[in-house]
């Protein structure tokens, strides 16, 4: 190489370093904005929860109108469980103020009434935003669902996922030998169960068994990477060379990347589904709820002109709308119920046409 | 209906009004956050532009790594034009501080070098966020591209779209008679051209002819709706009944909703593509740019361990990487050029595995 092109390489490298520093600063702005958003929206979410508490089946109706990427995972039996027993729902950014955590971590917290499926009143699924040297994303830990006898909608998937996670925890701390994990009886049990169940459509509740779209990453591993990155960035800023960590140390967890981690994943793509719920359905829940009313009047021109406060057409409306919610709520019930409230008149907004 | 159920209806209606008020307040928080984001990111975007100005082909390389939903619209000829002539690119939220506008409106502003395709140095495509009584979304106006003779990559689509938009402007102001629009010779010319071109893949530049995924909505029409909504909201807050606007007045623009507005749309789905560019590619441009280097070393294990500041392996790297960029930059050129700079060593991050 000529001297001139050496200089050029160094110039281009300098630009590359500038971009790395900028990327880090963009990240910081994003974190600041996420905290600001959380603070500004918190009182509104609180008020929304108070209003929702007075609207029967609110969350069932929201999940009933989920975007297609989520809806495809909601089976008729899930829908029935939501309609009859889903009482509260909340998204919590539980690491928003934790300097070692990430504002991108969140949990989906479902509150259920007493029901025939499981004993749990609350099922909370946590997703941690973590990174390795060459990956970043959401990881989770299987949540134990205390299914009632013969009522497991996932046919053993969540139990098997939970059992494997517990068995892994009993391995020596810091175990990075993947073959030891694969030798666990719980590993084979889960892999077999997943293979068996591939024919049938998984219940939405299998999401509680989700681990990762790649592999589990611990808080310790992620923390080390963050620290190294911060140190390297400081060096880049000072114009110093960054020493490459010993590759054995850096890659100890990645050495058998070829392994198919998804062999024991009960809900492939669960992170994408969770993100859609947390970032779209949760903030826009009112919009999704209202769609139940908007779509009902789509083939009834008179109703397009009914104001949200116009009670004149009430008597015409609510028989139709009741049918809809009742159909949902009564799914699987033996006799009709008369406890469902009449629905409000349709909103003026129709669903976005795009 | 019984008196008891009447009361119930009123209660449910009250909850519905509460949700409407909350929706409005969520919207306000979103606007506030958009302004805050704009203010915090502006200096970073300015610095990024300064760094990018020193990196040849930066934006061509970013668009070359576009997400699939965008990439599918970038034809080889578009890629060539970007590689050789795309000089600057910017997303501008031009209504961010306009109380009558929307922070969701934005423009895509492309700066080009002197080239053989068109005379324009700047092509700016504006998207306005507007609403009607039952739709909201982005609308745009066709941008005139001054194609050089025989070089129109859209084979007349942008010209025909622009001609129709101009012809519509010559109709009496406030014309809402769709049949008059359809009787314009420019209407048939465009519809025919779109039908003709359906066999071939449209150039990305056809995006400059985009109007709407539904129909064009003027600032006046959108402004009226916003005002009515604000007034209605104020009434709802005071617990007053909202009077429904006269349906003739409300729906005058929508009376022939059955009409297929997409008959004259040169880039169906253009709003979705623009949103991806503005909300994903623009903020994450550095990430997309770096992917060019990350993917090159994906089958070279040694390179995974090269730090961004480690210049040791430089001589091994850059021949490979030069080939890549040169292939892109030289596409269609008759003789090889030696002006391309050597590329920086690969970044440590590989592409997200998910």
Automatic annotation (TrEMBL), chains A, B:
<feature type="region of interest" description="Disordered">
    <location>
        <begin position="291"/>
        <end position="354"/>
    </location>
</feature>
<protein>
    <recommendedName>
        <fullName>Nucleosome assembly protein</fullName>
    </recommendedName>
</protein>
<feature type="compositionally biased region" description="Acidic residues">
    <location>
        <begin position="295"/>
        <end position="307"/>
    </location>
</feature>
<dbReference type="InterPro" id="IPR002164">
    <property type="entry name" value="NAP_family"/>
</dbReference>
<dbReference type="InterPro" id="IPR037231">
    <property type="entry name" value="NAP-like_sf"/>
</dbReference>
<dbReference type="GO" id="GO:0005634">
    <property type="term" value="C:nucleus"/>
</dbReference>
<feature type="compositionally biased region" description="Acidic residues">
    <location>
        <begin position="242"/>
        <end position="260"/>
    </location>
</feature>
<dbReference type="Pfam" id="PF00956">
    <property type="entry name" value="NAP"/>
</dbReference>
<feature type="region of interest" description="Disordered">
    <location>
        <begin position="236"/>
        <end position="269"/>
    </location>
</feature>
<dbReference type="GO" id="GO:0006334">
    <property type="term" value="P:nucleosome assembly"/>
</dbReference>
<comment type="similarity">
    <text>Belongs to the nucleosome assembly protein (NAP) family.</text>
</comment>
